[in-house]
Design brief:
About 0% of the residues lie in helices and about 50% in strands. It is mostly beta strands. About 20% of the residues are buried. The N terminus is likely disordered.
Length: about 80
């Protein structure tokens, strides 16, 4: 994996949709780190803490059918 790329294949299957758009913090290597919003290609939306390109910390994940999980994520898992 090249510097500046985020590898989403390690996310749990329920969260493994590729990111369509990202708004938020990045580190010096342009990796997603800090607070952010990730819009997935399938219409899902994540807003919250991100570490090493993964949902990590407090956040809110909304699936396309408006099912919502709000709480703690640990390296991409609920």
């Amino acid at each position: 994996m090249a510097t500046g790329e985020s590898n989403f294949e390690y996310l749990e299957p329920v969260l493994c949709d590729l990111v369509g758009a990202f708004t938020g913090d990045r580190d010096e290597d342009k990796n997603y780190n800090g607070k952010g919003e990730m819009k997935m290609r399938n219409g899902s939306l994540y807003v919250g803490d991100i570490k090493a390109g993964l949902f990590h910390g407090t956040g809110k994940f909304t699936w396309p059918d408006n099912v919502i999980y709000e709480g703690t994520f640990v390296y991409g898992t609920i």
